[in-house]
């Protein structure tokens, strides 16, 4: 059994659509890795017999329902619009994924350049909190301004 889940906020706005075998485990992953987890007030679940059916339903639902935080299957947008739509309430401390999206680079680049063995170091100093790598948005914006000069 595969599950298609939807996360809604208190105003019944659709936040995210996903597919998972274990919706509770996936919800916990969202808690650890997203800035929007605290907005979730309702989760709905729809079951499918196969993963293929669930993935196809997810693709259709994202395209039609346009959740705030899904990136996959959304029509392409201008980069500045995309950041504002995907991260409208951008937190001060960004995850690696959020930082990568904000800078338009891959998460792999960040991980490679923040490792202790990296020859080329990432230009923004990471903050480690409970084993998670975070970046201060103010540091990122300051670095961007320096690079522009």
What does the secondary structure layout of this molecule look like, with pairings?
Elements (H helix, E strand, L loop, with lengths): L1 E7 L5 E7 L2 H11 L8 E7 L2 H15 L13 H8 L6 E3 H8 L3 H8 L12 E3 L2 E5 H12 L1
Antiparallel strand pairs: 1-2, 1-3, 4-6, 5-6
Helix pairs in contact: 4-5
Short synopsis of the structure:
The protein has helices spanning 23-33, 51-65, 79-86, 96-103, 107-114, 137-148; strands spanning 2-8, 14-20, 42-48, 93-95, 127-129, 132-136. With 149 residues, it is an alpha+beta fold.
Strand composition percent: 15-25%
Shape: elongated
Please state the oligomeric state of the protein chains shown.
Answer: single chain
Terminal-residue CA separation: 54 Å
Mean of the pLDDT scores?
85
Please tally the helical runs, counting DSSP H or I stretches of 4 or more residues: 6
Query: What is the count of structural domains?
Result: 2
- SS class: alpha+beta
Widest beta sheet: strand line-up: 2-1-3
What is the C-alpha radius of gyration, as a whole number of Å?
Answer: 17 Å
Question: Helical residue percent?
Answer: 40-55%
Show unreliable segments. 77-86
Number of strands: 6
Order of SSEs? EEHEHHEHHEEH
Biggest sheet architecture: 3 strands, antiparallel
């Amino acid at each position: 059994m595969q599950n298609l889940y939807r996360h809604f906020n208190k105003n019944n706005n659709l936040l995210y659509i996903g597919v998972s075998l274990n919706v509770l485990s996936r919800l916990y992953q969202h808690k650890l890795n997203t800035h929007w987890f605290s907005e979730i007030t309702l989760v709905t679940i729809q079951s499918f017999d196969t993963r293929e059916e669930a993935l196809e339903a997810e693709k259709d639902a994202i395209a039609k329902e346009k959740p705030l935080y899904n990136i996959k299957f959304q029509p392409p947008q201008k980069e500045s619009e995309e950041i504002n739509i995907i991260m409208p309430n951008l937190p001060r401390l960004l995850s690696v994924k959020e930082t990568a999206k904000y800078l338009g680079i891959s998460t792999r680049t960040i991980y490679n350049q923040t490792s202790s063995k990296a020859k080329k170091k990432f230009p923004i100093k990471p903050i480690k909190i409970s084993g998670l790598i975070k970046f201060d948005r103010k540091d990122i914006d300051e670095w961007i301004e320096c690079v522009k000069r």
